[in-house]
């Protein structure tokens, strides 16, 4: 086993410019065979979610990782982190001192994979479409600061914002801002199924069985014009039911690389393995896990119940017994490596203390034990999730203050049920849309939030979120960001648990593995190639 640790520059907000790799579609691989990448992400088209790959609907790390290979955005997060750089655009920037007018000029000769030209009107159409459709995934909220989109000629797009938003360049790098062809994507309807067209580095051919995507073959797009250097001709993303099946495929040589989601036991075994034919690459990650609450539900409507859970749960034990060195306790929605992070939950609750939790509930007149069901998804965040929730159940029940049961549900059923408010308490993960503290706060706390949560705090929505977005220097926004985190720790509409690392295991003949995932868990298949491992 060759173990490699990738150390990337610290994420310090919007002020760190990093140049993207230049180039078009030059391939670094002479091998025509597809590089095969394994994943346990499940992709299902269902009655509740018939259009999983429409940029106006998709809003999870798995579907976004398919979209990022095929649908181009004006901006893109660079290879080494930092400020977004132009992708479909030749240049972009704020044109006023108040960060309320943002203009982009498109690259010359930009084309869809079909060969049709990409124009400014296509960009406007795509973004206006996502905003108007308001898909129930909540992804349109990323574009909520846009007032109007204007075009000037075929190559210039101007965004007029409702309020200052220093994070807007990041939002233009997310798939909801992806450019689609108006001749293919209807204005008033999502595109059902697994067909996908764009102007990104690859085209997609999907293999579907029983409304499930089992394989996605990405072939280099000869018409691609952008900032990325594509180091291969073809990559196949192949789905597996669990990490063990995926690991067996790597052992047998059926796949070249495996990524999401490897089990803690698997990573531990690979770390100790002396086999020098497989490289294990570990890198920093910004994934978080948390419990979310339907704050209108009778069982958890009392803030004291939610606070007591925050006081009882032992994050240190949870991490050490389930995830080991692959995660660390988290005491805020904002990870420790992000500018603006504050340990608000630890500052308020300190170490786990059953007596303090009991006093909270007694003062609020809450009758104990409180009966709860903790819901989790069985197939979206990895095989360790069940063990995690078993331990959460034990911690809460051992306090004597709760009578907890747990229930696991496949993601295709879990997510729609959660959005409809069917669960009082449920476990979720978050992979950031972009590496900024705003993206760990606004998606959970703003209007039209990702969770569909009934929780609303007027100070956060009316004052603190807009205030933080006005500041281009993200360190200077720490005051507003900290205040939001302190409010969350007091009201507990969500309860952060841990943040994790990310890992890739690959045949040592595959190159580019150090950059195949960025800190936001964005899959960058164009980085992969075949050659001699360094």
Automatic annotation (TrEMBL):
It is found in: Cell envelope. SUPFAM superfamilies: Periplasmic binding protein-like II (SSF53850). It comes from the Bacteria. Residues 83-449 form the Solute-binding protein family domain. PROSITE patterns: PROKAR_LIPOPROTEIN. InterPro entries: Peptide/Ni-bd, SBP_5, SBP_5_dom. It holds the Pfam family SBP_bac_5. Keywords: Signal, Transport. Its main location: other. Residues 1-20 form the signal peptide. Belongs to the bacterial solute-binding protein 5 family. This is ABC transporter substrate-binding protein. It comes from Streptomyces osmaniensis. The lineage of its organism: Bacteria, Bacillati, Actinomycetota, Actinomycetes, Kitasatosporales.
